From TrEMBL:
It is found in: Cell membrane. The chain crosses the membrane at residues 21-44. The lineage of its organism: Bacteria, Bacillati, Actinomycetota, Actinomycetes, Kitasatosporales. CDD domains: HAMP, HATPase, HisKA. Keywords: Kinase, Membrane, Phosphoprotein, Transferase, Transmembrane, Transmembrane helix, Two-component regulatory system. Its main location: membrane. Signal peptide: none annotated. This is histidine kinase. It comes from the Bacteria. GO terms for molecular function: kinase activity. The keyword Secreted does not apply. It holds the Pfam family HATPase_c. It comes from Streptomyces mooreae. Residues 252-466 form the Histidine kinase domain.
């Protein structure tokens, strides 16, 4: 049994899906057609047999009414050459049989019916070479049985003709089922074939811009295959965006690295000819080289961080954003002594802990604070506030600088994006992009908006898991 199942599984694996679907659909329809034909044959046979038995019962009733007092009677000559119906009356006691022999067979069951010890019954037999069906019942009020016989060859021929007709219908139905199964497999799997062709074309060309053609119609009428194709198109759109973003990142990174690398090469070549330089020139070149190396190192580290989409699970722990905020503000005060940083922490938020990676969350906060300090005027304040609701922490960082232009708001978190007012300031344009990526990795939402009264306001909403 196991070997049979294994052979069937290997056969299914070796056949394409279209052939298996066509075979399954054809088999299902063919099974229904054969079942209907078989049921129709059984019903026809039963109905015609029942009709013959009804005629026998009616004839026996007529015989009993007309020949109630005849006594034992042998069958008439019709039973020798059965053309229609014939009858005979048989007593329970064989000694009372008539002198003439019976034309219909008399059995012990017939005697028992005459004596009232056996129920009436039907039987099939052959008389004078012709098939007949006989009904044996008890004569009312007497120990005698009435046997009535009718030819059944016409019924048998009708049943045979019905069997031949139903066989022809069943055969035609099986052929039609095969054709329908093939059509269903081709029609039903057409979107799958288009999906496969699109996937193979993308694999061959490495171009994610291809899409699967969808049938026209409202989305409410889409079937499972159409929804699969729609999902595949959505996946291709996401893949195209990912590939485009990757290419843009590589192009932007190469553009951003070209300037500092050129400066590094210039200063390195200058220091290679240190014998021709004065001590002051050599010191300036060395300082510039060190500064540019730090910039390149920071930029490369930022690119590596951006290339990571999610946080490593082993590094996730329960952290208190209030503590991280206080530490980040303290570090920012050291880096930006000319900026005034203010912190307002809701007492309800001070003890709230969320799952996260502390160094990454600290990097997010430091990027927001550095960005706010960079755009704040000297001596201007940078306000931070942390509040807690029933389901999330709300952290805001606000500066009092020129704010964000309406045209720049949709792009402030793009990689390497720098507004017109920020191009003269230091930075690579990766800080806010990294901040949003860290926020998304922690299931948080980071948004930017124009603050009332001027300046920019960045809002970080962090969900707090239920206890």
């Amino acid at each position: 049994m196991t070997g049979t199942r294994g052979l069937g599984a290997r056969w299914r694996r070796r056949r394409p899906l279209r052939a298996r679907l066509a075979l399954a659909a054809s088999s299902a329809v063919a099974l229904v057609v054969v079942g209907v034909c078989a049921a129709a044959f059984v019903l026809i046979d039963y109905q015609m047999t029942r009709q013959l038995e009804r005629n026998l019962a009616l004839t026996s009733t007529e015989v009993m009414r007309e020949r109630q007092n005849w006594g034992p009677t042998p069958s008439d000559t019709l039973c020798q050459y059965p053309a229609s119906s014939c009858f005979q009356i048989v007593p329970a006691d064989p000694a009372k049989d008539p002198r003439k022999p019976y034309g219909l067979p008399v059995s012990d069951a017939t005697r028992q019916v005459a004596a009232g010890r056996h129920a009436a019954f039907y039987s099939e037999l052959t008389v004078a070479g012709q098939p007949v069906r006989m009904f044996t019942t008890r004569l009312t009020g007497k120990d005698e049985a009435v046997q009535v016989a009718l030819r059944s060859d016409s019924v048998d021929r009708s049943v045979e003709q019905a069997a031949l007709a139903l066989s022809a219908v069943g055969g035609a139905g099986v052929l039609l089922a095969g054709a329908l199964g093939y059509w269903v497999s081709r029609t039903g799997l057409a979107p799958v074939a288009r999906l496969t062709a699109t996937a193979e074309r993308i694999a061959a060309t490495r171009d994610a811009r291809h899409r699967i053609e969808l049938p026209p119609g409202p989305p409410a009428r889409e079937d499972e295959i159409t929804r699969l194709a729609t999902s595949f198109n959505t996946m291709l759109g996401e893949l195209e965006q990912s590939v485009t973003a990757q290419r843009r990142l590589v192009a932007d990174a190469s553009h951003e690295l070209r300037t500092p690398l050129t400066a590094l090469r210039t200063n390195a070549e200058l220091l290679a000819r240190a014998g021709r330089l004065t001590d002051a020139q050599r010191d300036r070149a060395a300082a510039a080289l060190g500064r540019q190396l730090r910039e390149v190192t920071t930029l490369v580290n930022d690119l590596i961080e951006l290339a990571r989409d999610e946080e490593p699970q082993p590094l996730v722990e329960q952290v208190r954003p209030a503590t991280l905020l206080e530490h980040a503000v303290g570090v920012a005060r050291e880096h930006w002594p000319e900026i005034t940083f203010t912190t307002a922490i809701d007492p309800a938020a001070a003890a709230v802990a969320v799952p996260g990676v502390p160094p990454r969350l600290s990097r997010l906060l430091s990027n927001l604070l550095d960005n706010a300090a960079k755009f704040s005027p000297p001596g201007g304040p940078v306000d931070t506030e942390l509040t807690f609701t029933s389901s999330e922490l709300d952290l805001t960082v606000r500066d009092h600088g020129p704010g964000i232009a309406e045209a720049d708001l949709p792009h402030v978190f793009d990689r390497f994006y720098r507004a017109e007012a920020a191009r003269a300031l230091p930075g690579s344009g990766l800080g806010l992009a990294m901040a949003r990526q860290i926020a998304r990795a922690h299931d948080a939402e980071l948004t930017a908006e124009r603050a009332p009264g001027g300046g920019a306001l960045f809002r970080l909403r962090m969900p707090v898991p239920a206890a």
